[in-house]
Sequence to fold (193 residues):
Amino acid sequence: MFKWSVTRKVTKTQKSAYDKARYAAKRADIRAKQNAYAAEHRKEKRVYDKDYQKRKRKLLTAKRKACRYKNIEHARLVEAAWREKNREKVNAYSKAMLKKRTPEEHRHFNEIARNRSKNATGAHTAKDWQDIIVRQQGVCAACGEDSLLTKDHIVPLSKGGTHNPDNLQGLCKSCNSRKHAKLPHIHVQVVGY
Ligand SMILES: [Zn+2]
Fold:
């Protein structure tokens, strides 16, 4: 068996393989010791854990996300079950959010949530969308009508379009619902502009 010694030159891979094997062999022992220590130092551990989570927030979030996407079907089932069980909490949260956000922001966040669930890539901010509206001078990109613009993904997300600003345009409600999830050239063939 490979033995770790300080005098011997070992590569990082060897060292990590050794550490892993050592940990696996002593796992129960190490865990018992950790648990005993944690039980004795409950308060300190809580403080440490909180601090750790704060320090490593980005890494931990990334890990959680990666894990979620690895088992996305399962994750969705678990989340749906949680929402079912905690309906009051969910409702209270959305109500609080409704109060806190402007309708514009609300639409924005709703849309982000929907797109995330479709695993679309890319991103834009509320400011990006505001800039697009300004650039279009509040006029529908399809019919030229001056009306409330809704977000349209030029290449639909369902056809591999991204959520980046360069894939966004403002359409009036009726043009947007007519276009739905068609690719631009199909839409032009059907509607004629
Ligand atoms: Zn229009």
Notes: Residues 12-40 form the longest helix (29 residues). The chain is about 65% helix and 5% strand. Strands lie at 149-153, 168-172. Residues 41-100 form one domain.
